[in-house]
Amino acid sequence: MRRVKKSVVVVIMMLFSMMLFSMTNVHAANKKLKVNKVYTTTKKIKGKTKKKYLVKVKIGKKIYKKKASSKGNFSIKIPKQKAGKKIKIKVYRRKNKKWKLYTTKIIKVKKKKISVKKYPGKEDAIDLEQVKKDLATGKEISKGETALGKGHYYYLMNFGGLKGNALIGYVNDYIDIDTDGEYVTMKAINGAKLYYTVAGASEKSMTQLEEPTFNSEHLEPRQKVVFSCYDFNKNANRGGLYLKVHAYKNGKLIAISYESHYMIHMIPGFYY
Fold this sequence. Notes:
Strand content: 35-45%
Mean pLDDT: 85
CATH class of the largest domain: Mainly Beta
Number of strands: 17
Oligomer: single chain
Low-confidence stretches: 21-29
Helix content: 10-25%
Distance between the termini: 134 Å
C-alpha cells in the first residue's frame, strides 16, 4: 500500500514539473519582440515590443538605445552594416526602479538585392495609346536608357522643349536615318517595316503632322527613301524635316520615331 502511495506521489510530482516547464516555455514564447529585417542598406532598426520598454542594440562595442513608444514601436538609428554581421538586441523592463532584462534576440544583416528595371525586349510591342497620352501632356518624359546608338532602349517625350517629338523603343535598331544637309535618307533595317508621314518644318509643326497609319507611305524591310531639301520648305531657305515613323515587325509595333532632321537649302553661288 505504501509503495502505491509513493508511486502516486512520484507521478503527481512529474506531472507538476511538466506543467511548470510547459508554463515557463509558454511565458518565454509570449515575450513580445518583433524586429524588422535588417539589410546592408538599413539605417534604422525598427520593431515592436511592450510599451515603454527599453531597447538596446549592440553592434560591436557600441550600444544604441531607445524607449519603445506607448504602442510598443521602436526605431533606432544605426550605421549601415555589412552582410552577415550579427546584431544583438536586448529589451529591458522597469521593475523596482531598475531595468531588468526582458528578452534578447540576435539578427543577421542580409544583403539587399537591388532590383534592376528590365527594359522591354527589342521586339516587345509598344502601347501606342499610352504613347499618345504621354505626348498629349506636353511634359518632357524620359525613361530608360538615353544613350545614343543601337542596342539602347528609349522612352523620350517632348524632349528639348519641343512638343510632339518622341523616341520609343530600340529605335536605332530598326529605323536608320541619315542626313547630309541636302538629303535625308531613311532605311528599314533588321526586318522592320516602316510606315511614315513627312513634312518640312516651315510647312507644319510636329504636332500638326499626321500620325502614320497602315494607309501611309511605307518601306518594306531593307528598302530606303530619300527626301530632298528642294522638295520641302519651299517658302524658306532653310528648315528641318519632320518625320513620324512607326516600325513594325511580326505584326507588332516595335519602335516609334517622331523627330526633326537637319535639312537646309543650299544658297546659289555659295560654293567655291
